[in-house]
Amino acid sequence: TAGGGGSPPFAPPRHFLSCTTRLLGLNHKTERGALAIDYYGRSVSVKICPTGVDVARLQEGILWPDSVQRRQAYRAQFEGRKVFLGVDDFDVFKGIELKLQAFELLLSQHPELADKIVMVQVCNPARGDSRELQEVQQEVFDIVERLNATYGSIDGRSSKTSNGESGSNNVVELINRGTTLAERIALLSVADCAVVTATRDGMNLLPYDYITCRQGPISVDAGTADGYPQPRQSSLIMSEFVGCSSSLSGAFRVNPWNTDDVADAMYRAALLSGSEAEARHERHWKYIHEHTVGYWAASNINELKRLTDGTGNARCYGLGFGLNFRVVAMDPDFRAMDTVACAADYGKAKKRVLLIDYDGTLVQAASYDVSPDAELLSHLTALAADPRNAMVCIVSGRERKQLDNWFRNVPGIALLAEHGFWYKPPNWSGSEPKDWQMLVPAGTEETIKRWREIVEPILDQYHDATDGSLIRDKGTSMIWDYRDADPDFGQWQAKELMDHLESVLVNEQVDVFPGHNHVEIKAHGVSKATPVEMFLGENWQVHLRPESEGATPGKVDFVMAIGDDRSDEEMFMAVDELVLNPEGAVVQKMSCPMPGKEKSKGHEHLSVYCVTVGQKPSKADFYLDDSDDVVQLVRNFTATGQSQSPST
Question: CA 78, 83, 86, 87: dihedral to nearest 10 degrees?
Fold first, then answer.
């Protein structure tokens, strides 16, 4: 029911989130400092958590005899010069040639530094071979040879000794072979500055290793006695494309493709004062010492535990085939509706209330108007004419004019427009049509007029800037719909729009909330819970079908509320609350079993169905897959109602 994905800084997670949006149509949100994706009932956390290094092992390795011996040799070899160190795989993405080009530019601009600094470049063996790699390797050899020939001390020796390493008086020491851990520890401990210029890299931990080795052994006194400065010092030049670059804020961050930028960073590192090197090292060491590999592992485990708290009983199902396969997690009490049992309960009921959403429920959700077809209208007409149905109400976010146009020939049906702002009672008697009633307090229209003057130009701006978006003006509410826009850009614009609106509407009585591929702005307090209170609350007799119109005496024993989006969740919660009110319209179930079960002897039978369309987290107890299933359920109700006599 939960998943976790740990990643270095934000670029990889950004690409991952983009793929989930484009390929799977999923949206993400921030949740307790982490990014979370709701995936068919599972909460998938995308946690940005750079891994650490085994600090204790490296600090122990500093005291290994081989490390101590090599450290002493390197200190003697580079005495009097600042050491720049690079340790990279000989790969086309490591930027070794860019690093050496920048070093060559530095020495051409400041030749006086030639006898004061040295670049030690360790090239671990390449993991593959290609013509491009061979060209990079040859370029590196050529630059090293040119640098040593131009700036190295002339002592009659060749640029390389018999063991493959450069001579001690060169400005570039190239170690073109694999190295042991003890050798790397020794090099890292003597380097004054580590240089990482990768053009594309994952979680390169060399900077962490370098800072740890510059800190010295666990015993501060032992390190100081071995030549480590007190306080400790270090400096870093890091490519902005390296995963851990954002974690080490004291590093010189560079674009490796910008040779001037890298050369300038090398110059500043070469002239770095001791106090500044101490401050940078202290900042880095504090982070690395706290965020070890053990901390990283514990952080991920704690995140998984947090995600799974309270969801251990969820049931998971594998649905679909091939690329459409997915794992759906649902609460044990959340299950597919048994339409046969529901139709049976409907047939047994004596007094029913049906609350049905329109868009996404009775018809497929779309960016254009989808009108009800003749078959659907005939079924709704039959439901509204059934005297056992004390209320059949279309609960919609549509504007009242549109609902009037579509359902004008269904007289016995109630209409709720614009999420509960307007209500049109059913015309059971067939006399003159009923008028629309406003369900909000007096003065709300003036409030809406005021905030619309603020909102309209803002929505126009985002509409013009986002291809594929559209604005739905419902009079009392406004919707910015981006379902046909680019998924990534539309989502970014929606977040920006919400921030923009919330900042300018802070003093207005208005709600701004996100929906599925849209942002809606509506008057504060307007909710689909309003009709539930009317029909199931204490004043239910005023609103439900009276006995004079053929209604069955007594209280409601069948309630169905069905919808597909966030606005319908308010309706579900209101139903759950009001069915427990002894003063309300619903019979008290006492020990009545769940819907679809046989009732216990001596208790009235009560059936309550809160149904969402689509398998997703919801306050509803049941789900149907799509609007086709909803229409089929309406057909079943019609058939059941026609086959039942009023007296049964």
Answer: 50
Length of the chain: 648
The radius of gyration computed from the CA coordinates of the chain, to the nearest angstrom, equals 36
CA dist., res. 262 & res. 104, Å (int): 11
| Helix, strand, coil content of the chain in percent (nearest 5) | 40, 20, 40
pLDDT tens string 553-569 = 889 999 999 998 878 88
DSSP class of residue 251 equals S
Q: What angle do CA 156, 162, 166 make, to 5 degrees?
A: 60
pTM: 0.59
* Residue type (1 letter), 474: K
Q: Which two tokens stand for residue 38?
A: 């709701």
Contact 578, 625 (CB under 8 A): no
**CA separation for the pair 371, 366 (Å, rounded):** 11
Mean pLDDT across 422-431: 85
Please write the tens of the pLDDT for every residue from 480-495: 999 888 888 888 888 8
> By the 8 A CB rule, do 544 and 535 touch?
yes
Q: Distance of alpha carbon 73 from its chain centroid, rounded?
A: 52
- Give yes or no for a contact between 136 and 176, defined as CB atoms under 8 angstroms apart: no
**pLDDT tens, position by position, 265-316:** 999 999 999 999 999 999 999 999 988 888 888 888 888 887 777 666 677 7
pLDDT at 247: 82
H or E stretch covering 443? none
Which two tokens mark 135? 């060209």
Q: Which of 147-151, 429-433, 463-467, 483-487 has the lowest mean pLDDT?
A: 429-433
Average pLDDT over residues 428-438: 81
Among candidate residues 642, 587, 621, 42, the one with its CA nearest the CA of residue 338: 621
414-417/422-424 β-pairing: antiparallel
User: d(Cα 574, Cα 572) in Å, to the nearest integer?
Assistant: 5
Question: How many C-beta atoms surround the C-beta of residue 557 within 10 A?
Answer: 23
29 and 36 Cβ atoms separated by less than 8 Å:
yes
Q: Output the CA–CA distances (angstroms, integers) from residue 307 to 38, 47, 177, 501, 620, in the order listed.
A: 12, 12, 46, 31, 22
Which residues 6+ apart lie within 8 Å of 459 measured at CB?
A: 471, 478, 480, 497
